[in-house]
Design goal:
Mean pLDDT: 91
Strand content: 15-25%
Number of strands: 15
Structural class: alpha/beta
Bound molecules: threonylcarbamoyladenylate, magnesium ion
Number of helices: 10
Order of helices and strands: EHEEHEHHEHEHEHEEEHEEEEHEH
Distance between the termini: 26 Å
Shape: globular
Radius of gyration: 19 Å
Strand order of the largest sheet: 1-8-2-3-7-4-6-5-9-10-11
Length: 320
């Protein structure tokens, strides 16, 4: 049974205790809803993979309420400390070498010597993480391959009955997943465009980020497990960079377009568009739309993450 929790202090500390004891509890972050489990509890993580229907053990992001709380688990380089000071709490995930004696389960890192860590800015998430007193592994709270959830109803649509609890909080302000950068080797690498524009990170680092290739002929060749071509998929087919809808298509607009059923941002605001992206795709799925045409979206700032998610959603479906 899936218990619904409020954001009261009592509920958040109850939910945190249950996570510590092995339960799977979905919670809001500023990016998307996460499905939280105790990262040191291999059995809870195995149940998490099963609940999401993930056939492969992709590594998970470790969430904590503060940078200090993550120090026992990963080695922070000077660059990592600088980025943490500048952007945490917030929509940035950093991949770092793990501490040798870490209690984190190998299932969380999928056996890698590195771990991805993040301090989210959502007040609800931070209060939950503060009470959990253990790093919380949290992938997006959706069935594998489906759209990421930005509202409690999206979580329940996919996972009701399969998870132990859901904290009903605010809708997600940012709306796309965190930006992931790998600082575990010499040069900083952008692994996933996301809620923090890469331009901001480059400015803070004073150097450009190397890009992990974001499209591969063969998914097995990907540098970061889990960055599959087909991901974040709605049920409908997607056609991108569409100037107008063709026969039978529903137009998801951006900017001043005519004939759009929904508009990610009529004022061409990429922040607003990111926040609306998954919610509008979910809504079109709920309406039973078969074919979605999407207006062209600029590729700078948050446009990089929006275009990345749309490209993956329009790619041929992989087996995940
Ligand atoms: O905004 C977010 O990041 C959300 C919220 C809930 O925090 N979480 C999220 O988790 O998007 P998930 O599991 O859907 O995506 C995590 C990504 C995967 O693509 C995985 O491959 C990558 O992080 N990742 C995790 N650990 C890694 C590591 N050690 N090295 C490289 N990539 C890693
Ligand atoms: Mg995900």
């Amino acid at each position: 049974m899936t218990v619904i929790y409020s954001t009261s202090e009592q509920d958040l500390s109850d939910a945190a205790r249950r996570i510590r004891e092995g339960a799977l509890i979905a919670f809001p972050t500023e990016t998307v809803y996460g499905l939280g489990a105790n990262a040191c509890d291999g059995e809870a993580l195995a149940r998490l993979y099963a609940a999401k229907g993930r056939p492969r053990f992709n590594p998970l992001i470790l969430h904590a309420a503060s940078t200090d709380a993550l120090e026992p688990y990963v080695h922070f380089s000077d660059q990592a400390i600088a980025l943490a000071k500048r952007f945490w709490p917030g929509p940035l995930t950093i991949v770092l070498p793990q501490q040798a004696e870490t209690p984190v389960s190998k299932l969380a890192s999928a056996g890698l010597p590195t771990a991805a860590v993040r301090v989210p800015s959502s007040e609800t998430a931070r209060e939950l993480l503060f009470h959990a007193k253990t790093p919380v592994a949290a992938p997006s709270a959706n069935v594998s391959g489906g759209l990421s959830p930005t509202k409690p109803s999206h979580v329940l649509a996919g996972l009701n009955g399969k998870i132990d609890g859901l904290i009903e909080g605010d809708d997600c302000r940012v709306g796309v997943e965190s930006t992931i950068i790998d600082l575990s080797s010499e040069t900083p690498v952008l692994l996933r465009a996301g809620g923090l524009p890469k331009e901001d990170i480059e400015k803070a680092l004073g150097q450009p980020l190397t890009h992990a290739h974001d499209s591969f002929e063969d998914d097995k060749a990907r540098p970061s497990p889990g960055l599959l071509n087909s991901h974040y998929a709605p049920k409908a087919t997607l056609r991108l960079n569409a100037t107008s809808p063709q026969n039978g298509e529903t137009l998801l607009g951006f900017g001043t377009v005519t004939g759009a059923s929904m508009n990610l941002s009529a004022s061409s605001d990429l922040v607003e568009a990111a926040a609306n992206l998954f919610a509008m795709l979910h809504e079109m799925d709920a309406l039973g739309v078969d074919a979605i045409a999407v207006s062209p979206i600029p590729t700078d700032g948050l446009g990089a993450a929006i275009n990345d998610r749309l490209n993956r959603a329009s790619a041929p479906r992989s087996s995940e």
